[in-house]
Every structure is written in structure tokens, then in C-alpha cells.
Amino acid sequence: MKSSGKTAEEARALAEPVAEALGYFIWDVEYVKEGTEWFLRITIDSEDGIDIEDCEKMSHAMDPVLDEADII
């Protein structure tokens, strides 16, 4: 089993080009256990700020990337 830090590093490497293509930058990536569940959180920002639509765009863009990489 990979460490949560290693998974977060791999997720960041995958997320950076996706974020850049959408006009965002990565602020933080964490893979944390809360209760019995694990969560991958990718925090993004941009020069113009971020709203819920930006979060949705990033999430939808990352889904196939994470599925293909199979890091989780």
C-alpha cells in the first residue's frame, strides 16, 4: 500500500497540467483519511479567484485522468 504522501505527490503531478490547461494553479493536494473514508482533495486557485463552477470543471477534468492512472 502506498503512503498518503506518495499518493498526494502522484495526484499533484497528474493535476498540474490539467489545472494549467484550465487556467488554474494547484494550491494544495492531500490524500487524507477521515473516519473510515479516504479523500483526495485538490485545492486550486487562479488570478481571478475560484467559484463552484471552476471546482466542477477541475473535478470533471480529473476524473478520467485519475481513473486511467489508478493511483487510488
Structure explained in plain terms:
The protein has 72 residues and is α+β, with helices and mostly antiparallel strands. Helix content is 51%, strand content 26%. It is built from 2 helices and 2 strands, in the order H-E-E-H. It has a two-stranded antiparallel ribbon with strand order 1-2. The longest helix has 19 residues, at 4-22. The chain is globular. It starts with a helix and ends with a helix. The model has no long low-confidence stretch (mean pLDDT 95).
Give a quick set of tags describing it.
72 residues; alpha+beta; two-stranded antiparallel sheet; 2 helices
Can I get a quick summary?
By secondary structure, the protein is an alpha+beta fold. The protein is built from two helices and two strands, in the order H-E-E-H. The longest helix is centred in the first third of the chain and has 19 residues, at 4-22.
